[in-house]
Amino acid sequence: MAEFRDSIEIGAPPEAVFEYLTTDGGMTAWMGQHADLDPVPGGRFSVNIAGHPVRGEYLRVERPHLVVVSWGFAGSEVLAPGASRVEFRLTAIDGGTRVDLRHWDLPETQVPGHADGWANFLPRLAIAGAGGDAGPESWQPLSDRDERATTHPYRNKQRRGTCPTALRSATPTGSCAGTTAPGRAGTSRAR
């Protein structure tokens, strides 16, 4: 099994960012088209992302600093509902919050697709969490795209460290703050 880690900075306090991990409207402001959340240990974590039903449950909820959920896909034999874990650790920093994401218990074959997904969604969380509009969601999983779509110049430019103006203004430092910085679109490793 493997894990993926990344972090972002958001120009809002942890208390505000926490709502984007625990409320239906907060979640869909940055990830997914529908959410049905019950943010208590053992409570439902259900988010539909581009037609893919993510299913799991809240494992730990420590307002406003920690959310851990189980994560998988309804109907999947490779990553069944609740098969992996995602941790969002929120730390107060000067001017906002640092969110450290850890996604673990991932089959090796799932790491590239999840890394691609988090590279899309974490910058959207930075925008929404700071009170901005992350815009309509158009992301598609790698498995749903053809080769031409995965080499689109804008996506590659994003990965090289260029970030949208809305994201720059959403972070305390006025930069991508580690979201898609050159050479670090997150890290993954086998355990």
Automatic annotation (TrEMBL):
InterPro entries in alphabetical order: ASHA1/2-like_C (IPR013538), START-like_dom_sf (IPR023393)
Pfam family, one: AHSA1
Polar residues composition-biased segments: 168-178
Chain segments carrying region Disordered: 132-191
Activator of Hsp90 ATPase homologue 1/2-like C-terminal domain mapped to chain residues: 12-126
Family: Belongs to the AHA1 family.
Record's protein name: SRPBCC domain-containing protein
